[in-house]
Each structure stands twice: as C-alpha cells, then as structure tokens.
Amino acid sequence: MKILLLSLVLAVVCDAQLPLIHQLTQLPGQWETMYLAASNPDKISDNGPFKGYMRRIEVDMARRKISFHFYAKINGQCTEKSVVGGIGTNNAITVDYEGTNDFQIIDMTPNSIIGYDVNVDEEGNTTDIVLLFGRGAQADEKAVEKFKQFTRQRNIPEENIIKVTGTDDCPVN
Known about the structure:
By secondary structure, the chain is α+β, with helices and mostly antiparallel strands. The protein contains 2 helices and 10 strands. Strands 1-3-4-5-6-7-8-9-2-10 form a 10-stranded antiparallel β-sheet, sandwiched between helices. The radius of gyration is 17 Å and the shape is globular.
C-alpha cells in the first residue's frame, strides 16, 4: 500500500513539472524584447534596470539552470548582462538581479514568450513586471493581445506598457 501511495505522489509531482519542462525545451535560442510593463514604471524606463534588450536564452536541464543574456542601457551606453537562474519545483525560475526575482512563463509559442516576474529589490520594494519576447522583428498581434490582457490582470496600468521593438540599437550577439 505504501508503494502505491508513493507511486501516486511521484506521478503527481512529475506531472506538475511536465508543462515547465516542455516550455524549457523551446526556450534556447535567440530572442528579442518586444514589450515590457511594470507596476513601477521607473524599473523599465530609460536607465531602468529592467529595460533590457534580450539576446538569447540558454537552458541546462541537467543542472536545472537557465541563463538570460541581454543588454541594458545605462546613461545611453549598451551594457552587456548575463544572469543565471535556478529552475524551481514550483514552475518558477529564481534569479538574483537587482534583488530577487521569481520569473514564470505565462504563455509560450515557438515565436513568443509572455513572462511574469516579481522583483523584490534591495530596499524590499516589490514590482510586478510583464514581458513579451519574440523571435523576429515584429511581435505577433495575438501575443501582444495576450500580453496586454495579462498586464491588466496584474493591475498594471496601460500607461505603464512600453513598446521596445524598434528602440534596440545595442550590438547583436
């Protein structure tokens, strides 16, 4: 009976991880930041730490790590950044960058990622950030609408949405 119960628990735990594992297999490669939204608009404004220009994402399933490679503009200068996060059992990716971040993939297609990040900075302030990454020069209208819908669900005002597409003049890796 104990074996049966243990098997059931393992099946439920493994089943809960399958959506994240499936998403993570689609993540590696080149990505571009299309849209950003934040409950604190200073975080995504010019010179803000989260106004990032994504370049690529790498996944190391064996070590349960994910790497984000991007540029941030600081005083008008493109500064290359790279952060590594741990893949948790709660479908969140935990990253230390400008405080602590719990990042989740909300929706994903082969050409778009809608992500949600909760950042708690060094002062203890919490900021909700919603982002849309894409492959290619233009964001798919369906993905943009899903992004805006999720932004509304997080109670982020529409005026806190910025279109990043077309503003990226940082080097391409």
